[in-house]
Design goal:
With about 270 residues, the chain is of the alpha/beta class. It has twelve helices and eight strands. The longest helix is centred in the last third of the chain and has 20 residues.
């Protein structure tokens, strides 16, 4: 059955959808979490640490949501604050120091927009990550597992390979936010989802993502183990390809792929907003 963009977004937000920590537990071995940004605090919405991937030491980082109310509040609903992005960068720089590949997993509605986060430099923290990630001299593989919300996703999303689960989405704004701005009417949320072109299939067509990872019929929440196995296979293949590149080739490839984000699409791809 063919799903509409809005139906795919609803699957990306399914309450039982596997979270980043679930993928880490299934795919990686010897995971040891590292806390704190060494400047302000730890951010439970951003997790990461050393691990092994098919026997190779690596660094794994991701945004983490919660299941029940207590977990959701503790994880701030998966919305990182500046200290979360600074922690992520600290871990990435540690990985570069020891020549370890970096795996990042994205599932967030966006960076936290609270007053405290803004006072501590939310936008600056994300912008700094974009610059620094572009210059890291180790392979970076990014997987969008659920929601890929704007700068909140991009703050750990600068990679040599960008993968998306089939029903994930990646967008500059949520459909609800788009509907509020364009139509001032939340009943237009499905129209906004169609207009934004934020599903994995469309993003693969325009080369924003490298590969769409299939999900079990009905969504990843129905078989997390099988979904993680498919993610594992794609990451392993991607890492093998990147390990064959020189440092300079890694940097150039990462730069060129993100130049695509500014490409103007042809008129037939422009959505009708009427």
């Amino acid at each position: 059955m063919t799903l509409t963009p809005w139906q795919r977004i609803e699957l990306a937000r399914h309450p039982k959808r596997p979270h980043v920590k679930d993928f880490i537990d299934i795919i990686f071995q010897d995971y040891s979490e590292i806390h704190g940004d060494r400047r302000y605090a730890d951010d439970p919405a951003m997790i990461g640490g050393m691990a092994r991937f098919h026997g190779e030491p690596c660094m794994v980082i991701g945004t983490q949501k919660g299941r029940d109310t207590k977990q959701k509040l503790f994880r701030n609903f998966g919305m990182p604050k500046p200290e979360g992005y600074r922690k992520a960068l600290r871990l990435m720089q540690l990985a570069e120091k020891y020549s370890r590949p970096i795996f990042t997993f994205i599932d967030t509605t966006g960076a936290y927009p609270g007053i405290g986060a803004e006072e501590r430099g939310q936008a600056e923290a994300i912008a700094f990550n974009l610059r620094e990630m572009a210059q890291l001299k180790v392979p970076i593989l990014v997987t969008i597992t659920g929601e890929g919300g704007s700068g909140g996703a991009l703050g750990i999303g600068i990679g040599n390979r960008i993968y998306m689960l089939e029903h994930a989405y990646y967008s500059v704004i949520s459909p609800e936010g788009c509907a509020a701005i364009l139509w001032k009417d939340q009943s237009k949320v499905e129209s906004a989802a169609n207009a934004l072109k934020i599903t994995s299939q469309y993003l693969k067509e325009i080369d924003i993502v490298d590969q769409v990872i299939p999900e079990p019929a009905g969504g990843a929440h129905l078989n997390p183990q099988n979904t993680a196995k498919l993610v594992d296979q794609q990451l392993h293949q991607g890492l093998q390809q990147l390990n064959s590149l020189s440092t300079q080739e890694l940097l150039e490839q990462r730069y060129e792929r993100f130049r695509l984000l500014g490409t103007v699409v042809d008129a037939p791809h422009v959505a009708n907003l009427d």
